[in-house]
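Marked as duplicate of an earlier ticket. Keeping the data here for the record.
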Amino acid sequence: MGRGEVVADCPRCGEFAIREPEVLNALSRTTRGVDDTPVYVCSACGTDEGMLEYYGSDGCQPQSDWPI
């Protein structure tokens, strides 16, 4: 099984790192509410959000601060 083709910029970091199919990326923790539209970020950003959540920081960077 391959790692997928890189097809787009990550909305959180701006790097050309979003892969296809979508499931190869990370679901942003900023979009996990019942009525939220799912937003996928690159694996590195997904890991960063997970670490921020795990270590109890003030939470994830809001989408309004994302470059894209």
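See parent ticket for discussion. The helical segments are 43-54.
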